């Protein structure tokens, strides 16, 4: 192998490495933005829906069976509990959306989203019929099929919290 060929191969390898790094960086940045603002959209939508009687009735069995949340019905009506949850979800989304203005606020919002999705995932274990085992395999009932997506939302919340924390620390 002559010197020109060796130099060309080294340069080709360096160019591929820079291009690969640039592509990975762009993919990661896009993933974070889509995850953050996708979570914002989801939280705004489900938060706004909590102010409807249909949604309040829909979440009532989930909240009522939750050892972490059922106490709220002793303080508020079914609609009141739903309104409170909706307000928290909307506030969480608003804080997350502030990322360009305040990474710290976005970190707080993403952390609140983590708590939100941990609570909703807990419904899989506290709601009768949400999940059970049949012949040794997990089976999801209607509530479980609806709630299982929250695992992905939880992961996105952790990811956006990590990114906002890193940005807030400068």
Structure notes:
A hairpin with a 2-residue loop joins β1 and β2. The termini are far apart. The protein is mainly alpha-helical and 170 residues long. α1 crosses α6 and α4 runs antiparallel to α6. Helix content is 76%, strand content 5%. The longest helix has 47 residues. It has one domain. It has a two-stranded antiparallel sheet.
Overall structural class, as computed from helix and strand content, comes to mainly alpha
Order of helices and strands: HHHHEEHH
Into which percentage range does the β-strand content fall? under 5%
State the low-pLDDT regions, or none: none
Mean pLDDT: 90
Q: Helical stretch count?
A: 6
Largest sheet: 2 strands, antiparallel
Could you give the topology of this structure?
Elements: H1 3-49, H2 53-64, H3 78-97, H4 103-126, E1 131-134, E2 137-140, H5 142-147, H6 150-169
Key descriptive features of the protein:
170 residues, mainly alpha, two-stranded antiparallel sheet, 2 strands, elongated
Short description:
This protein is mainly alpha-helical and 170 residues long.
